[in-house]
Design brief:
The complex is a heterodimer of chains A (271) and B (252).
Chain A: H1 11-36, H2 40-60, H3 64-85, H4 91-113, H5 119-124, H6 132-161, H7 173-199, H8 205-210, H9 217-242, H10 246-264
Helix pairs in contact in A: 1-6, 1-7, 1-9, 2-3, 2-4, 2-7, 3-4, 3-7, 6-7, 7-10, 9-10
Chain B: E1 4-12, E2 17-26, E3 31-35, H1 42-50, E4 57-61, E5 69-74, H2 88-94, H3 108-120, H4 136-150, E6 152-158, H5 166-181, E7 185-190, E8 201-205, E9 209-213, H6 215-218, H7 221-228, E10 232-236, E11 243-246
Parallel strand pairs in B: 3-7, 3-8, 5-6, 6-7
Antiparallel strand pairs in B: 1-2, 1-4, 8-9, 10-11
Helix pairs in contact in B: 2-3, 2-4, 3-4
Classes of the chains: A mainly alpha (271), B alpha/beta (252).
Chain lengths: 271, 252
Amino acid sequence: MISPLELLEFPFGRMALAEVLLLAVGGGLAGAWIVVRRLAFFAHGTAGSAFPGLVAADAAGIAPLAGGLAAAAAYATGAGAADARDRERSDGPTALLLVAALALGAVLASDVARSGQGVESLLFGGLLGTSGAELGLAATAAVVALAGTLTLGPLWMASAFDPRGMRALGLPKGVADAALYATIALAVVAALPALGALLAGFVLMPAATLALVARRPGVLLFGSVALAAVEGVAGLLAAFWLDLPPGPVMASLGALAFMAAGLVAAPGRQK
Amino acid sequence: MIAVRARGLAAGYGGAPAIRAVNFAAGPGQGVAVLGPNGGGKTTLFRALMGELEPITGEIEIPAAAGRSRAGYLAQLDRTRLDLPVTATDVALMGALGRGRWWLPPRRDDREAARVALARVGLEQRESSLFGELSGGERQRTLLARALVQDASLLLLDEPYAGVDPASAETLDGLFAELRAEGRTLLVATHDVESARAFDAVLCLNGEQVAFGAPDRVLTREVIEKTYGSELMVLESGDGPVRAVAVQHHEH
């Protein structure tokens, strides 16, 4: 039987490894903020909304990622604005937009576009076919997430802790929230080539796991990066070894780690 | 000298005004109790004073005090998150973010201000405790420490006694007296009609301003009944001052 490490002997394997490590930075940090700000649904919606953009762009002969990015940006802008206006009532429109986006993507893929890339890879990712442009997007998302965390992190945490108190504290809540939504949307879109529209929500899994045990913001934020890297690399190597698609294997590993952390998390922690 | 003044103020959330015809003023060092029933407009008034709600009509005046921010706010406890990995010190430090350099790590004097504020509210031994693991009274005092770090001349305290144990309530009373002695103006939303007698003035709200003035002039049977309506549980009147107990609840 082949060794999982043999993957790294191939250029496509090394590209995939680099993609995983870059996504661990951007996705790990964004995931932590998704958990802190309770924006899991927003993140899933952003990934799902990219699907019709990916298909349409592919059919039009332009880079699918550009179409996905445009669709996700439009969705993130609308959903972010609705969320900022009325957090308690934004879930319904978010869900409807997500369903509509997936349905539109399916229609485009089956009846209009006849996608050359394959619906399966758009939905579930294709990490082993990572391109240079995709690496560039993942690196950009990592830099943006890191810069946002270091400069806007205190505002994002204060807003999560007491959203109505931001104005009284003299803090620019609107600007901070818009930057956070953009950072999350970029991280999710950067994960699309590797994980696909349905699995890009994996970016929040390491942070959700760490949130069960972390007692300091730094542990949650940078621990999420480390855990995302471990889960990503382990998932990639295991998928190669078992001849399975990497995205679902990574997501399954993340789910297992989450369940394990849930079992050992200190009881009585207030939620 | 005026620390805060509202003239003909009406404010709300897009429909009919939640409060209207609000006229009051308070000077430096004064304490004003804001009384009213559930939905009477106490929190709406505070949100308007913070600038979170634009007045529909009327105006608000909060002159800047030298070296101090204008308004500090003590939120209701149920509006804060208990599941975040933030300590009492982290929360107190949030009060320093508004000084205009939030993109940089806290300075040494910010950390010192947070430490002093926590000591002032009696939480020097709990600085490193997670906010979610503090008692209700300790959380309330932590939020007060955050407001102290803001170093505001006007403090808006939204039901500071809600969910607070007697020891913490005593600490808060002492601290409020100190803050007034420092020249800070306190607006305290409360349901406790009796405690309102200890303030310099009382503002009664029930959708509109019912009364404003000195406690012995405002806290009459007629005003209290008009303010609380059916939420008034007990009303006793003998030869002495009116005694009343209003229903305890949280305003949303």
